[in-house]
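Dear colleagues,

For the upcoming journal club I promised to circulate an example of a predicted protein-ligand complex. I picked one with alpha-L-arabinofuranose because it came up in last month's discussion. The inputs are reproduced below in full, followed by the predicted structure.
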Amino acid sequence: MNLLKPTILAFALAAVPAFAQVSVTVDTTKPGPVINRNVYGQFAEHLGTGIYEGLWVGPQSKIPNTRGWRNDVVGALKELKVPLVRWPGGCFADEYHWRDGIGPRNKRPVKVNTHWGGVAEDNAVGTHEFFDLVEILGTEAYVNGNLGSGTPQEMAEWLEYMTSDSKSTLAEQRRKNGRDKPFKVAYFGIGNEAWGCGGNMKPEYYANLYNHYATFLKTPPGARPKIIASGGHGEDTTWTDVLSREAAKGTDGISFHYYTLPTGDWDKKGAATGFPESEWFSTIKQTMRMEDFVRRNVAVLDKNDPQKKLGFMVDEWGTWYDVEPGTNPGFLFQRNTLRDAVVAALNFNIFHAHAERVRMTMIAQMVNVLQAMIITDKEKMLLTPTYHTYKMYIPFQDATSLPVAVDNDVAYSVNGKSVPGISASAAKGKDGKTWVALVNTHPTRASEIQLNVASQNVSGVSGQILTADAMDAHNTFDKPQAIKPAAYSAKAANGKLTLKVPAKAVIVVSVDA
Ligand code: AHR
């Protein structure tokens, strides 16, 4: 006889009131660290239609473009105030040889993108094109170097090509290729996922190679990028530990990757749309693991790097589902729903809570790949719920984090497992306003949140909400506005400010005095 079952049932019934009443308190008197705007970074890899078609159509295309970069996509991205773009990979970075991507485009070699779909890579987008995109977007560049199949010389020469203001042959070659002044490389990564596609290394071996390669990375004074060591993933903190001890000299950050898989099983990850509630729940549960991963890695950094020189750079994260049926499995194309918006917001709230160390993150990826902002099909383009979440959270870029307490939260529980019902984050924006972000993770239960802002008179809140009836609500080319943010406001009454928060919703509001 299974004695456990009735207990679980009773627990599940007790834990699901129709309406949750929660209290959220923001303390404006104890400002915390600044939320680095680079937490809102993006990743663009030579993968599927992430760059070719999604962003780059070439100057001859009928799709309106600026020197090859499509105007519709770039225009939408500009509205996100993207602070930083990582390129050219990912796994692709450790197979990328930068010299293939310079000079006249019709003379560039055509390679096979062996990692992603085995398709032809004609190198139409190379260093100059990438920096053109960076400058059009008004963003900064995070260039990821090839440690896996390159050499220290090749890596050093790429950095010299990009940053030298001298009369060296490489700097002159850059000028001949159309760029007089050096490119600004804000971040430079030495390899990617060295534990896997980047070379299947042990952390100690990578640490040696990292130090070796880093020794030869030289730039003119003032042009040195922040250098990123390629770290670990998931629950293992070994890479953070080894690298923060063995590869910390001159290093600005250690990277970390974690993807949300609904099932946690790489062979059957779960569908992007049409999923059951059990996979809504497991997706939230898997996403919330990020909190634990960040906390444990930060504890390792605090031990090995008490001066806090090193950042913890989550330079790949997001949902990873089974690919859309009928598409190239190597292209990692998936639909993007309200569930992705909730996942993005939960991750933001976690990153804000660790703003001191989490100084940069990149969602994977910007267009058409995994948890994308934008989906294109030839000349058509649509904005995803994830895009809308990024836009709603713009006030948190470079804002000063504020402590938030969530009291009386009613957990969202399924089969004896629980996640927080409400996730909250707050910050003092650069505009001087207090901003609050709230996520209701429950797919059917609304909440009433009493919002208290310590030592501030509050008359109400105003901002935006993203929600929908269906868990997998998403935009299509036929209905591109099926899910989009709506205005949201609430007024205080009798000294109390109560926010009605529908099920499965993301809300970002500023507090009105
Ligand atoms: O984002 C897709 C891939 O996921 C990246 O290329 C790689 O770094 C990670 O495994």
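Two points we might discuss: The longest strand covers residues 19-27. Residues 45, 89-91, 192-193, 316, 364-365, 370 surround alpha-L-arabinofuranose (CB under 6 Å).

See you all on Thursday,
B. R.
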